[in-house]
Amino acid sequence: MRMIAASALLAALVVPAPVLAQDHTEEDAARVADMLRDPVLQQSVAQGMAAASEALLDVPLAPLARAVAEAAGDDPRDIDPNLTLRHVSPDAETVPSQIHDKLPRAMDAVAGMAGGVSAMIPALREMAARMQDAVDQAGNR
């Protein structure tokens, strides 16, 4: 379940990364919120993340498991050569569908936060100006 939450959060944060890397204005944050609320984008990201997680379930783990076994003094030949995450954790089978189902809601939540940031930007700018004035006045004493 933690993997689902982490994947959802990562996807939601990666989508607006180019916008977030720039100087922010209220309009930028509002645009990010609108973008993250777009159901077409949400479905596209959810499908992509579900497909990626499905592929991760089949990544061969045997080479890593053999190295760990050898380092622990165990016989690496005891490791199943077909070992994958899907085999190690049968519950992981549901992860792709859970990501697909829950990611749009996570993106809506991040959109709400981006909308909140948009509303806060003027107050934050005013606070920064007041803090700068206070620092300048303290330096003149």
Written description of the protein model:
This protein is mainly α and 141 residues long. 75% of the residues lie in helices and 0% in strands. The N and C termini lie far apart (56 Å).
Short description:
The chain has 141 residues and is an all-alpha fold. The chain has helices at residues 2-14, 17-20, 26-37, 39-56, 62-71, 85-88, 95-139.
- How confident overall, as mean pLDDT? 82
Class by alpha and beta content: mainly alpha
The count of β-strands is 0
Strand content: under 5%
Shape: elongated
Give me the number of helical elements.
7
Roughly how many Å is the radius of gyration?
23 Å
Q: Can you give the helix content as a percent range?
A: over 70%
* N-end to C-end Cα span: 56 Å
Q: Which sheet architecture does the biggest sheet show?
A: none
* H/E topology pattern: HHHHHHH
Query: Which regions are unreliable across 5 or more consecutive residues at pLDDT < 50?
Result: none
Write out key terms for the chains shown:
141 residues, mainly alpha, 75% helix
Helix-strand blueprint:
Elements: H1 2-14, H2 17-20, H3 26-37, H4 39-56, H5 62-71, H6 85-88, H7 95-139
Helix pairs in contact: 1-7, 3-7, 4-7
